[in-house]
Amino acid sequence: MAFDIEVIKSVYERMPERVKAARQLLGKPLTLTEKILYSHLWENPATQTFGRGADYVDFAPDRVAMQDATAQMALLQFMQAGRPKVAVPSTVHCDHLITAKEGASTDLAVANNESKEVYDFLASVSNKYGIGFWKPGAGIIHQVVLENYAFPGGMMIGTDSHTVNAGGLGMIAIGVGGADACDVMAGLPWELKWPKLIGVKLTGKLNGWCSAKDVILKVAGILTVKGGTGCIVEYFGEGATSMSCTGKGTICNMGAEIGATTSTFGYDESMERYLRATGRADVADLANGVKEHLTADSEVYANPEQYFDQVIEIDLNTLEPYLNGPFTPDLATPISKMKEEAAKNGWPTKVEVGLIGSCTNSSYEDISRAVSLAKQVSEKNLKTKADYLITPGSEQVRYTIERDGFLDTFDQIGAKVFTNACGPCIGMWDRMGAEKQEKNTIVHSFNRNFAKRADGNPNTYAFVASPELVTALAIAGDLTFNPLTDTLTNENGEQVKLDPPTGFELPAKGFAVEDAGYQAPAADGSSVQVAVSPTSNRLQLLDPFQAWEGTDLTNLRLLIKAKGKCTTDHISMAGPWLKFRGHLDNISDNLLIGAINFFNEKANAVVNQETGKTDTVPATQRAYKAAGIGSIVVGDENYGEGSSREHAAMEPRHLGVRAVLVKSFARIHETNLKKQGMLALTFADKADYDKIQESDKIDILGLTTFAPNKSLTMVLNHADGSKDEITVNHSYNDQQIEWFKAGGALNIIRKSVG
Ligand code: MIC
Ligand code: SF4
Asked: Is the preceding peptide bond at 507 cis, omega within 30 degrees of 0?
C-alpha cells in the first residue's frame, strides 16, 4: 500500500467538484496545471480567477519533502514554530552529504561517521515531529519521492530545486526554500505567484539514440536558463504519452534548469504502469477513477495556442541527441555539430570521465539502456577509454539492477558504483588530481554543469547528456564521437559501430529491495529529545534576525558588484561547504566567494571601503558587520539561479547585507531573500547597473512608505562627490512587506506562537 493513501484519497474525492467550479469560474476548458492549482487553493471553492504572472495566491500543498543539506535549516526553523507535529505528510532524505570516492560501501561508512551528528539530529527531529526519515544510502530525494510518494494530480513542495521531478508522475511539485517548507509543515498556507503557462507539444516517438533527456536538453536550448521563470510547463501529445513515466520525470527534473516553477504531464498509462510496478496499485486504481481530471480538457491540447501563453512543438521522430555545456545547461549542441563547435570554442575533446545517475537519470530504463551499450564493449572487442562512474538514484533501483546482472556488465567495463546519493552531482566527489586544476572534459547525465560543480576544478568542462550518450562517449573517450554515424577502432584494429541503445521501461521481474532505508516516526514523539550542542561546528540553533529599524537605509557600502552568471553555487558554494549547512555562522564564510567582482574580474577579492584594502568577500562583510555598517550586493541577470538553498539568502542577512539589487532574479532565490527579511530589488532601468561604482555610498529611500507596486529610490553617492539617483523596483506584496519589517517571516510565526 502507498504511504499516506488517505491524503491521496481525499485529494481525489474533492477534485471533481473543485475542477468543475474552476471551469465555471473561468468559463473555458482547463489545462492540467489549472486543475491541480485550483483544486489546491487554500480557500476553496475558488471565488475569483487569478492573473497569470500577476497575482499572489495561497495554496495548500499535500506534502513536503526535504533533503539533508536543506532540511537542517528548514527544521531548525520549524522547531521555533512551536508545533507538536507536522501539519502535512513530510519526509527527510539523507543524500547530499556523502562523498563519492572509493565506492558505495566504504563511502557510506565514512559519511555515517563524519556526519553522524547531523544524521542523528535529522533522525530525532523527524521522529519527534512525525516526519518520515530516509537514511543515508536509501537514495536521492527525488527518485525516492517518485517511487513512493508522488501521485497524479497532487501538489507538493520540497526544499530542493529538483522537487519538480515529481511532475513525471503528473504532480505540481515545486522547489522552495526551507522557510516555505516550515510554513506548510506548521499548517500555514503557501504562497506562489500564479504562473504563466508554457505548453510543449511532443509529436512523433523517441527512437534510436534519443531519449527523454534530449527533449529537455533541446527545450533548455530554446528557452535558456531563464526562459521558464514564472512559468509552469505542461507537456502533451503522442510523444508524451508514448514515453515512460521515469522519462517524463527526467524532463520535469531539468525544468529547474530553465528556471520553470515546475513542469508536468497528464496522467496516462505509463504512469499507471509505474505506479503498479512500484507497489502502488491502490493509487493507480484511485487515479483511474478521476482520470479526466488528471489531464487537461481535450479542447486544450487540440488548440494549445488558445490556452497557453507560449507553445513549443518538438518532433521526437527527428530529434537528435544533445550535449549541453560547458558551464551552463542551456548551451545545447546536437551531437552532429559537436566536432565543429568544440574546435571553434577550444573545448578539450578527450573525455576523461563519464558519469551516469543522479536524481535526473537513474531509472531502471536509463540504466538498462546504458547497459546495452556497455555490453557491446566485450561483444565488439572494444576498450572503454574513459573512467565510468555510476550513482544509482535509490536502493530499490540499485538492488534491482544488481539482481538483473547490470552491475556485473558495468563492472566489466571498469565502472565504479558510488552510494545511492548525489555525490559528484553536487561536488561531493573526491576526484583524484582535481586540485591540479587541469583543463579537462567530463560528460554526465546530471542536470547542472556550472563551473566547479562536480569536482571543484574551474577548468573541468562538464557536458550534460543522456546516460546512453554518456556511455557511448565514455567508451569512445571522445567528445566529438557521433555514435549515429562514426565508427570506433576495436582491439583487433577493425572499425566497429555501436548499435543504438535498447532497454526496458520497467523490470520484467518487478522491483526488489531488501532494506529500502526508511524509518517511520514515533506515533507520539512528544518525549523525543532533540539535542544541539552549543559547541558543535555542524549545527547551530537560530537566533532571530533583527527587525527593520523603521527608517530609510543610508550610507550602505557596496560589498560586491557581481558580473555575469551568479548562481546559488557562486553565492553559497556546495561541495566542501555542505557540511556547514546546519551552522549559519560557519557557512557564512563562503558568502559569494564564487562571484566575479565586476571591478577586477576576480572571484573572492573585493575592496574594503573602510581600509582601502582588498580582502575576501566574507572577511570584508564581517568587517562591515563589526563596524555596524550595512551593505548591498549588486548582480546581473537571473541572479540566484539554480538551487533552492536558502543559505544563499540567510548568509548575507546574517552578516549584515541589507539589499540585493540585480537586473533579474531566479524565482526561488528572490522568495528566499524576502522570507529572510532582506530587500530584493531590481533595476527599473537595467542600464543603471553601469552607474554603480566600487566606492559608492548608497542610500535606499522610500522604505517608510514601502508598498506593493511602488518603486523605491536609490542614491549612489560617488567618491568624487557626484550623485546618481536611480529607481529600483520590487515585487513585494503586503504580507512580504510585513516579513521585511519583522526582520524575516519566521519572526512573525514565532510571535504568533509565543
Ligand atoms: C542542487 O542540485 O544544487 C542541490 C544541491 O540539490 C540544491 C539544494 C541544495 O543546495 O541543498 C537544489 O537544487 O536545490
Ligand atoms: Fe542531488 Fe544533484 Fe539531484 Fe541536486 S541535482 S538533488 S545534487 S542528484
From this structure: no
